[in-house]
Amino acid sequence: MVNNLLIEKLSYNGDYTTPTTVQLVSYSADSCNKIDLDPLKKEEFHYSPDITYWINVDGLNQEETIEAVAESVNLNFLLIQDILNVHHPTKIEEYEDFLMIILKYFIQDDEGDYIPLQISLILGENYLITFSEKHHPFMDDIYFAIQEDIFHIRSRGADYLLSVIINSIIWNHTSAILDINDDLDDLEEDLLSINSTKNQGADIQTIRRQYLEMKKAILPLKDQYARLFRANHNLISVQNKAFFNDVNDHLQFVLQNIELCRETLASLVDLYISNND
Predict the structure, then answer these.
(1) What is the CATH number of the domain that holds 158?
(2) Is pLDDT at 44 greater than 80 in this prediction?
(3) Residues 98 and 126 sit within 8 Å (Cβ to Cβ)
(4) What DSSP assignment string belongs to 152-189?
(5) What are the C-alpha distances in Å from 129 to residues 118, 197, 274?
(6) 49-107 pLDDT, tens per residue?
(7) For the CA atoms of 238, 240, 245, 251, what is the dihedral angle to 10 degrees?
(8) pLDDT for 109-159, tens place per residue?
(9) Are 172 and 114 in contact (CB under 8 A)?
(10) Nearest-angstrom CA–CA distance, 99 and 93
(11) Euclidean distance between CA atoms 117 and 106, whole angstroms
(12) Phi, psi at residue 59, to the nearest 5°?
């Protein structure tokens, strides 16, 4: 690991070469507009306090562009480093004028293993910025909801948009951890079979590695999610707190399954050792 306090150049440390694209979605109860942005061009921007702005950045390997977007809302150098550091732990932090949230989203590789991708979110008074290593289809679903004003999303502000995106990520966690638990069920059946020819030790290690990756990504939210409500700011409105509470219910379900996965994995390791004594 490199000491980031000794580095003066921004650098994305992930594996994806996705071209960096920036899209601005601006909307209100009566309108919705989506345009491509080039933050390196100093274009005149007509800001309105009555409009909600969502800046979605896909691809992190063009550091100059990431820096330009981040500096437009006064993010300092260290916070931009956090966005570009895909190994940064999950966190929710409050700053003077915004909240910063770093989460992981899981995709499957060609072998079916889950790989974490980093998503950083910046919530301001009437804007949300999302930075992703690559494009995620669920973002298209959210934009469609804004276009069609599903569930009056255009009237609910940037904080509601944040709750929708976090909810999509939590559902992704749910799907991933339930898959791991299904794999553990299959492994248990195999360990109890007298005719198995599988390499059960290797299977246990594969599942354990994925479990630990998910635990590292999800478990910090157990304590940090409450910061959204304890923070000394007005960025999350009273009327939208109910939606964040609903997201928390989904988070608790994921955390329960993380614990179930841990217990099952420990039991299967004991069973494997017993079978091989």
Answers:
(1) 3.30.460.20
(2) no
(3) no
(4) GGGGSHHHHHHHHHHHHHHHHHHHHHHHHHHHHHHHHH
(5) 14, 50, 52
(6) 899 999 999 999 999 999 999 999 999 999 999 999 999 999 999 998 999 999 999 99
(7) -140
(8) 998 899 999 999 999 999 999 999 999 999 999 999 999 999 999 999 999
(9) no
(10) 6
(11) 6
(12) 90, 125
Residue in this structure with the two tokens 């274009």, named with its chain if needed: 43
Secondary structure class of 37 (helix, strand, coil): strand
Encoded amino acid at 51, one letter: I
pLDDT at residue 173 in the model: 97
Question: What is the count of structural domains for the chain?
Answer: 1
Mean pLDDT of 34-62: 88
Domain range for 70 is 4-275
Sign of dihedral through CA atoms 61, 64, 70, 76?
Answer: positive
Cα–Cα distance for residue pair 240/155, rounded to 1 Å: 11
The residue with tokens 């939208």 is 240
Measured distance CA(98)–CA(96) in Å, rounded: 6
Q: Which of 94, 83, 144, 151 lies closest to 117, judged by CA? A: 83
Residue with tokens 């994806």: 16
The Cα–Cα gap between 118 and 103 comes to 6
